[in-house]
Amino acid sequence: MAIKGCSMRIAVSARAVVLATLSAALLAGCANRDSIHVGSIPDDYRTNHPIVVGERERNIDLPVASSAHKVSREQAQVLAGFMEDYDVRSGAAVRILVPYGSANAGAASAVAAQMADVIGRQGVPYSRILVNSYDAGAPDVSAPIRVSYTAVTASVGKCGRWPSDLTDTAANKHYANFGCAYQNNLAAQVANPYDLLGPRKTTEIDPENRAAAIGVYKNRGISREFNSQSEIEY
After folding, report:
1. What share of the chain has pLDDT > 90, as a percent?
2. Which residues pair with 99 in a beta bridge?
3. Strands 94-100 and 129-135
4. What is the arithmetic mean of pLDDT over 182-190?
5. What do you get for the CA distance between the two ends of the chain, in Å?
6. 205: number of Cβ within 10 Å
7. Rounded distance between C-alpha atoms, residue 117 and residue 106, angstroms
8. Fewer CB within 10 A of the terminal residue: the chain, N end or C end?
9. Long-range CB contacts (< 8 A, 24+ apart) of 109-117?
């Protein structure tokens, strides 16, 4: 009886080992299938070319003729447009870099002072307008005046990466530059980069407008605005 009991226990143990082995094989097969399935999905272009929100320097170069003695109307308009996105509350300094040692150094110095007035009229405190100089590098060139300031900007890395042949699609993945231009355009069109980080606080309601809308609904009436735009006569 003892021998028979031992053989039964051995049979049960062997059966348990077989079941465990089959379960492991089935799980391994599922894992392999999932791996192949996931590997066939192309990479997300938003992962390859993420939009990054951070502080960056914005700058513009304004050419100045050697004969100029004041800021032109076109220069003032371009400069005002450049400063339109400047956030007065940010406290960022606006730098005006004036060339020296160039053919237009004298003219650039006079124009830069008037550019500071243009920037001041855009709402930037004069205490935040810094005028510095830079070496033009050659006395026979007409170097531009550079205006710059730092601001929180949405941006994407540089496009134009072609590390491999476009016809190499055996891995069923998109090419490296795929989606880069789209992401750059989207980042450039966002008016407020902080909108990419999260939603804004809900604005306050208009109680007068809400009361009027509820009143029309309760009376089951049709608003004049709807009637004027509707092609159906009620």
Report:
1. 42
2. 134
3. parallel
4. 93
5. 97
6. 8
7. 18
8. N
9. 110/68, 110/69, 110/70, 111/64, 111/68, 111/69, 111/70, 111/71, 111/75, 111/145, 112/145, 114/70, 114/71, 115/62, 115/71, 115/75, 115/79, 115/145, 115/147
Strand partners, 132: 97
Asked whether 120 and 129 are in contact (CB, 8 A), the reply is yes
Provide the token pair at 63. 């050419």
Q: Is 146 helix (H, G, I), strand (E, B) or coil?
A: strand
* Location of structure tokens 């990479």: 43
3-class state of residue 27 by DSSP: helix
Q: Are 149 and 95 in contact (CB under 8 A)?
A: yes
Fold assignment, 52-155: 60s Ribosomal Protein L30; Chain: A; (3.30.1330)
Q: DSSP string covering 95-123, please?
A: EEEEEESSTTHHHHHHHHHHHHHHHHHTT
**Sign of the dihedral through C-alpha 119, 124, 125, 127:** negative
Chain centroid, CA 13 distance in Å? 62
DSSP 64-89: --TT--S--HHHHHHHHHHGGG--GG
129's tokens: 């307008």
Half-sphere exposure of 154 (CA within 13 A, CB side): 18
DSSP letter at 94 equals: E
Using left for φ > 0, alpha for ψ between -120 and 50, and beta otherwise, residue 117 falls in: alpha
Amino acid letter, residue 139: P
Q: What is the rounded average pLDDT of the residues 116-145?
A: 92
Distance CA 61, CA 134 (A): 13
Do 76 and 117 form a contact (C-beta atoms < 8 A)? no
Q: Retrieve residue 121's tokens.
A: 């009229």
Asked if 92 contacts 130 with a C-beta cutoff of 8 angstroms, the reply is no
